[in-house]
Amino acid sequence: MIAPKPHITADVIESSPMGGPAKAKPVVTDLPRIEAAVREILAAIGEDPDREGLQETPRRVAKAYAEIFGGLAVDPAVHLSKVFHEGTNELVIVRDIDFHSVCEHHLLPIEGKAHIAYQPSGSRVVGLSKLARTVEAFARRPQVQERMTAQIADAIHTHLRPEGVLVIVEADHFCMKMRGVGSACANTVTMAARGLYRDHLAARAEVVSLIQSPVRGRSAY
User: Fold this and answer.
1) Residue ranges of domains in the chain
2) Pick the catalytic residue: 79, 103, 115, 119?
3) pTM
4) Pick the CATH number of 8-73 from 3.30.1360.130, 1.10.286.10, 3.40.50.300, 1.10.390.10
């Protein structure tokens, strides 16, 4: 049997609410503890954790969990802290940001796409890849889709201070596909609006129509 590897430790950078220097908070993934738990689960379902095909499974699962839940060690403020002043306050939309997450109720996969729109204020814009990184930071942790959608919108609204933010998330939940009702075709759509897009229905409707508009190789959700 392969000896457990040491814990994986990372530092999450927490932004100061008073605008002071950021503080590093250690986040530890206890790999040996995960391995022991996986062995217990395998035994509890009637499997033999020592048979050839399962001997390395606890180690593999522990390593996978460290990656899948890596967002717990990331403060999205890190991705949104670097802004550019481009002399424009025109609408920005990034569609079809792929993500993978885990349902916190059953620890089964959630996979889908996020669509982000924001109306800059004071010409403050952020690198487009940073929006995808923000989605990833919130997705890579135990989640529920409703909360994740709101967290993405709140983070962008807080750190970019735009006129408005709209986030739409569409996802498939394997807790519905693999168990319970077994609804293989169900797709869940959630929306969070802040600022301009929460208060003005016409502005929100215009952005939603742009997000839904088909392009080559893509159909509306």
Assistant:
1) 8-73, 84-212
2) 103
3) 0.84
4) 1.10.286.10
